[in-house]
Write a structure and sequence with these properties.
The chain is of the alpha/beta class. The longest helix has 22 residues. The relative contact order is 0.16.
Length: 368
């Protein structure tokens, strides 16, 4: 199969979908890999490194997108819609539940689109979302701490405090991969941390692994209203696979938060768990509503592209090999990969997206 690796063109998106090691793995199986020139520069990977791995360097996005399968990091943006076509197999993050335009573009083009974030194992885990959730979770307290600086519009709180001064308060909504990793960093910074989740079992697990260094609390409206009143930083880490995130922190709650406090909503690419959040970019990452600083960058891991690129390829390459080896037939033999199918032959095939966008859904197996 011919596999294309185009350069990411979303604002300040410096990740690339495959490392030279991933390219070598595909070449070893007899596939051809086309890498757009400069695709890896933002992650510190040169064209020469790809060439040494066996890739063919192409001079334009058009050539890379002309491949049978295109492997990306982020969802296609409007400038890339022209490359969508019926005989294309697209393997990337999509987050369609919060993007009606892209969903309609994929359906109307007939593109077969497999989304990293909905590939799901029997135990419910999301192997291709996990590495970027780990990165974003660990970044959240860092960017939140920066936003809290007075010159950046924050209330001027040092999360770790100093002797004689109470440390900052961090509230993490959602105790999954994002929340757990955010807690690790926030605790390491010396902050006082509360993690909220709807699952008592998960809270018990977090209480155990953190050994009392964090507080756990049931996630419900009353508790959220209570704890945000003293929060310096709120991290949103709620996820419903493939579906729009529920609004747990609502607009009417914002006036009760301290002036200059910060919200970092990692769930923004799924619509966000904060009602007032909207997607921002690394060029213009924050805005203020009711005195609260909102950070809504939808590609947070793009800020640490080298770490993110290698972490992502580690997880995606196994599935990319299956798709390259067997094409769409691979989905018949891999239940986890089948759940990744979002569109095919002009049909929407993922229930969560259909519910979020009020679109009809076709059973994925019926489209194969």
């Amino acid at each position: 199969m011919i596999v294309g690796i185009p350069k990411e063109i979303k604002v300040k998106e410096n990740r690339v979908s495959m490392t030279p090691g991933g390219v070598a793995a595909l070449l070893k199986r007899g596939h051809t890999v086309l890498v757009e020139t400069g695709a890896g520069v933002g992650s510190g990977i040169t064209d020469l490194e790809y060439q040494k791995a066996g890739a063919e360097i192409v001079s334009s996005a058009t050539e890379a997108w002309h491949a049978e399968m295109v492997v990306k990091v982020k969802e296609p943006i409007h400038e890339e819609y022209k490359f969508l076509r019926p005989d294309l197999l697209l393997f990337t993050y999509l987050h369609l539940a919060a993007d009606q335009d892209l969903t309609e573009a994929l359906i109307s083009s007939g593109t077969t689109a497999v989304a990293y974030e909905t590939v799901q194992l029997e135990d419910g885990s999301l192997p291709l979302l996990t590495p970027m959730s780990e990165v974003a979770g660990r970044l959240a307290p860092q960017v939140g701490a920066a936003c809290l600086l007075k010159p950046n519009g924050g209330r001027g709180v040092l999360l770790g405090g100093v002797p004689g001064v109470i440390p900052g308060r961090v509230v993490i909504i959602g105790g999954g991969v994002v929340g757990t990793n955010a807690a690790k960093i926030a605790v390491g910074m010396g902050a006082r941390v509360i993690i909220m989740d709807v699952s008592h079992r998960r809270l018990a697990y977090l209480d155990d692994i953190f050994g009392g260094r964090v507080q756990t609390m049931a996630s419900n409206e009353a508790n959220i209203r209570e704890v945000i009143q003293l929060a310096d930083l709120v991290v949103g880490g709620v996820l419903i696979p493939g579906a729009r995130a529920p609004h747990l922190l609502t607009k009417d709650m914002l006036p009760t938060m301290p002036e200059g406090s910060v919200i970092v909503d990692v769930a923004v690419d799924q619509g966000g768990c904060v009602e007032t959040i909207h997607a921002t970019t690394h060029d213009d990452p924050t805005y203020v509503v009711d005195g609260v600083v909102h950070y809504g960058v939808a590609n947070m891991p793009g800020a640490v592209p080298r770490t993110s690129t290698f972490a992502l390829t580690n997880q995606t390459i196994g599935y990319a090999l299956k798709l390259a080896d067997h094409g769409i037939v691979a989905l018949r033999h891999d239940a986890a990969l089948l759940k990744g199918l979002n569109t095919r032959n002009g049909k929407l095939t993922y229930k969560g997206v259909g519910e979020a966008l009020n679109l009809s859904v076709t059973n994925a197996l019926e489209t194969l």
